[in-house]
Amino acid sequence: MSRHRIGFWYRFAAVLAKPPLVVLFKRDWRGTEHIPAEGGFITAVNHNSYLDPLSYAHYQYNTGRVPRFLAKAALFKGTFVGAVLRGTGQIPVYRESSDAAAAFRAAVAAINKGECVAFYPEGTLTRDPDMWPMEGKTGAARVALLTRAPVIPVAQWGANEAMPPYAKDKKLRLFPRKTLRVLAGPPVDLSAYYGKEPTAEVLRAATEDIMAAITALLAELRGEPAPEQPYSPRRARAAARREDRGDNLPQEDAK
Fold first, then answer.
1. Where is the composition biased (Basic and acidic residues) (predicted)?
2. SS3 labels along the chain
3. Contact by Cβ (8 Å): 91, 71
4. What is the structure's pLDDT at 99?
5. For helices 7-24 and 52-61, what crossing angle results, to 10°?
6. With 60 as the cut, is the pLDDT of residue 254 above it?
């Protein structure tokens, strides 16, 4: 595949990151044939470790189509890290501000220029106790329906075993040597939503289709069935509030 869009900064980052990844981890990479050789597209990826952006970026870098991540705007302010993020064309996200929509405009512009934009539709590390993808946010679907670009679902597993997402000690667990597993699937068919007004219901339905495709790929990687419903932080918080109020207790105990 063509590498003409990689550029100096991405190659520089690869020189720094690839050697330790190659030495410290084994790899099980599948589905690279689904990464488009030409044109703009979206990848939608599950997120279960602070380490998995490196794992996924390594996988896709080797296809010749580098991803442009949406990243917190604060990261762009650092001297070295910020320079690398800016140089590699990553997209700042200004959360909870009037500039929040700028990330979507930048993502659309990048796709229209023939780039790949990578979304973590969950918006954060999964909170699912068994590390399955959560309900997704609608940003990837919104950009997909605006651009009609292919949405490639990507599942990954293994980085979470080396760096569990919510471990208290935040230490790498490198031994025994872990395998970074990444699997890309065919584009998610969102054609049923093309031409429709992007209402909350339409965006939610498209997002559910994207998350279902990611989850199915992760079930294949893990070799076990996925839960029937994705974990919902909103439902979990509501259940916790009910429990705190004693709503789940037998009536005589809740008095």
1. 240-255
2. CCCCCCHHHHHHHHHHHHHHHHHHCEEEEECHHHCCCCCCEEEEECCCCCCHHHHHHHHHHCCCCCEEEEEEHHHHHCCHHHHHHHHCCCEEECCCCCCHHHHHHHHHHHHHCCCEEEECCCCCCCCCCCCCCECCCCHHHHHHHHHCCCEEEEEEECHHHHCCCCCCCCCCCCCCCCEEEEEECCCCCCHHHCCCCCCHHHHHHHHHHHHHHHHHHHHHHHCCCCCCCCECHHHHHHHHHHHHHCCCCCHHHHC
3. yes
4. 59
5. 110
6. no
Q: Please give the structure tokens belonging to residue 61.
A: 């870098």
Domains of the chain: 7-229 (3.40.1130.10)
pLDDT at 97 (0 to 100): 56
pLDDT score at 250:
53
Among all chains, which residue has been given the structure tokens 């990954």? 156
